[in-house]
Amino acid sequence: MRAAHVVGAGLAGLSAAMVLAEAGFAVTIHEAAPRAGGRCRSYYDAQLGQEIDNGNHIVFSGNEAVNRYLARIGTSDKLSGPAHADFDFHDLGDDTRWTLKVNDGRFPGWVFDAARRAPGTTIADHLALARLAVARRQTVIGDIAPTSGLFWERVVEPMLLAVLNCPPAGGSAWLAGRFLMASFARGGAACRPMVAEPTLDAAFVDPALAWLAERGVTVNFGARLRSVRLAGEQTAGLDFGAGEVDVSEAQVIFAVPPNVVSALVPAIPVPDAFCAILNAHFAIEPPRGAPPVTALIHSTAQWVLCHPGRVSVTVSGADDLIDQGREELAARLWSDVQATLGITAPLPAWQVVKEKRATFAATPAQDAKRPAAKTRWRNLFLAGDWTQTRLPATIEGAIQSGETAARLASAHLRR
For residue 227, what are the contacts with CB-CB under 8 A and spacing of at least 6? Predict the structure, then answer.
């Protein structure tokens, strides 16, 4: 039987392993951590007294790779979201609230209806974003869209900050365009915001591990790859600290962070600038009827998500906040939650989760450093949302990258 080694058990690695297993490979996964999931993980938090996700990971209903992944492991029903693509906003600067309502079909009728747009924005504002679809790869968003005014503050900046996880004005217009073409340009049916219920582990990780186990896939936890032996045009050996594993006749996929790849194989180019994400969780029951997701303007918090027994907050591009004290951050973010949800209760039990290197900085310069899945070594392939997926760093991109790497590995043996 053909053999394959996948290094990394995040969503990219799990996705790659599943495609390889379906193709008839004997697959071994090596994961440095004691558990799978990577940056999309769940854990029991003693401070909150409940199981939580490390962050608020939102996918869209039209994410094709996500839908394939969940259908494969039988958890398509574990995504929860609105029946239509309705996005609730609250501007804390002037206490204005509105709902951006994207119609289900591909024709953007909502753009022509002032009641469905953000207040103070125009049809021309929205149609001008079509230029992102034809943006060149070296172009930044600030070259295409005005970076001031109500349309920027109420639509472009909050949406694209969440997508790119870097200041949008200097973000890649090309990546923003790819995102819009895969979501809003396909209509509201493709861009309903969805979250894993009850947790990321329950939807994406544990069922995937069970699916892989049923097909004989071995997962070695606590297996940190220490060195790689390259021989000519192929990967010959992997050293996890207990003697070298001969992989000269196997296919190898590195589904690990870019800094790990660059340390192991310096000849592979990788992004080297990253942006932070900050998440906070508060152990309190949300008010009855509160929107499941609210985008905040003119506030520290950017997105407020309501879960059973918990309210969570996300701040993207959080480099200017990430080193602040946890108590100070919890108080600031709770103040925003109180303002938008109308809660008068004092600060409840809380947890702040910091990801300093959450994603690569989605700028043209960093996008140009993203390597392809195929390397110059014939049996070595790369996966991860930081590889060249033609998307920003998202769950969709991570899963898609695993599929791509696995298919290339399989196709290599057929030649």
Answer: 238, 239, 264
